[in-house]
Amino acid sequence: MDNRIIYLDHAATTPVKPEVLEEMLPYFTNKFGNASSIYSIGRESKKAIEEARERVAKALGAMPREIFFTGSGSEADNWAIKGVAYANKAKGNHIITTAIEHHAVLHTCQYLESDGFEVTYLPVDENGLVSPEQVRKAIKPSTTLITIMFANNEIGTIQPIAEIGKIAKEHNIYFHTDAVQAVGNIPINVNELNVDLLSLSAHKFYGPKGVGALYIRKGVKITNFLHGGAQERGRRASTENVAGIVGLGKAIELATNNIEQYNKKLIELRDRTIEEITKKVPFVKLNGDRYKRLPGNVNFSFQFIEGESLLLMLDMKGIAASSGSACTSGSLDPSHVLLAIGLDHETAHGSLRITFGEENTHEDVDYLMEVLPAIVQRLREMSPLYEKVKRGN
């Protein structure tokens, strides 16, 4: 094994592709103009933004005027939820979501609860799936928004978005999906899915950090999230991150043009890893649906060990992985997602998330399986709980 870091945390972030960086670089230097300026280098920036908007729209099956650039996926989630909630308050104050959403959604919904809104947090089954029928039953006359993530960032479970979208449309309720983990990994057409709002983030599909987008279907009633300028057709104030937007446009084009071949490779790596871990490591549980999951996502809970210790020992062997969401890695609490699918606190603490990307190979899986079982066994030998199991108590 050489000194190369084997990066297995693509759900947290991805490297910027060379082709993406190449398109971005001129907008840091000679093409630095403010897109709101009328002189030539300003017009060049404006043109680059509109070209990126067209690329994003094409990737989603949307119209360019329905795409609005943001500073992140989290901002897009906040804008979608708060914007629809406040714009439609006269109609009702009820929102439906699930217990396993990203905190960008959960914390936004909790904030709205403190401001008089009512939120229903639907449970999920042991695989992390919400039932469309549960969604239907939760609808009230006061429901104005359903917000359910496309694919879970921790366990990789893909939700029945098309069925939920159909239910929302039947009841004339806006439907938002946090698709930050899905875009670039799953083919998406907003019209086929009956989605009214969709959030995405460039750094999840080999674009730069600090830039995202929100799809807002034409006719959706939504308030502005940022005020102070006329950018984004008066909908989102702030001088545009031109280089970032250009990078997002290029990255989403590359990701969606190559998605079938990319998925085939990731599914092979994912399935082989699941089979190897299940075969070589006892007392493990695969988290998330076995097949309705993101192509590159593997999430296991290992009994009798702490996930943090496992990550540190993998890092010492040159493997970068995760125990869950990068946004909550500083928390000592077990994953809310793993608790929601029925795991106890102890088992939830022993989770490992492996997420593959296009640079990963079968040799990476070979090396992972060379070191992982030994690390797990070593950590278990330190556990008094495991000692009881060995003794048959």
From TrEMBL:
[2Fe-2S] cluster binds at residue 327. Keywords: 2Fe-2S, Cytoplasm, Iron, Iron-sulfur, Metal-binding, Pyridoxal phosphate, Transferase. GO terms for molecular function: 2 iron, 2 sulfur cluster binding; cysteine desulfurase activity; metal ion binding; pyridoxal phosphate binding. Coiled coil: none annotated. Pathway: Cofactor biosynthesis; iron-sulfur cluster biosynthesis. The keyword Iron-sulfur applies. GO terms for biological process: [2Fe-2S] cluster assembly; amino acid metabolic process. Pyridoxal 5'-phosphate binds at residues 73-74, 153, 181, 201-203, 239. Its EC number is 2.8.1.7. GO terms for cellular component: L-cysteine desulfurase complex. It catalyses: (sulfur carrier)-H + L-cysteine = (sulfur carrier)-SH + L-alanine. Its cofactor is pyridoxal 5'-phosphate. Residues 6-368 form the Aminotransferase class V domain. The modification N6-(pyridoxal phosphate)lysine is found at residue 204. InterPro entries: Aminotrans_V_dom, Aminotrans_V_PyrdxlP_BS, Cys_deSase_IscS, Cys_deSase_NifS_bac/arc, Cysteine_dSase, PyrdxlP-dep_Trfase, PyrdxlP-dep_Trfase_major, PyrdxlP-dep_Trfase_small. It is an enzyme of class 2 (transferase). It comes from the Bacteria. Master enzyme that delivers sulfur to a number of partners involved in Fe-S cluster assembly, tRNA modification or cofactor biosynthesis. Catalyzes the removal of elemental sulfur atoms from cysteine to produce alanine. Functions as a sulfur delivery protein for Fe-S cluster synthesis onto IscU, an Fe-S scaffold assembly protein, as well as other S acceptor proteins. NCBIfam families: FeS_nifS, PRK02948.1. Homodimer. Forms a heterotetramer with IscU, interacts with other sulfur acceptors. HAMAP family: Cys_desulf_IscS. Belongs to the class-V pyridoxal-phosphate-dependent aminotransferase family. NifS/IscS subfamily. This is Cysteine desulfurase IscS. It comes from Acetivibrio clariflavus (strain DSM 19732 / NBRC 101661 / EBR45). The lineage of its organism: Bacteria, Bacillati, Bacillota, Clostridia, Eubacteriales. The gene is iscS.
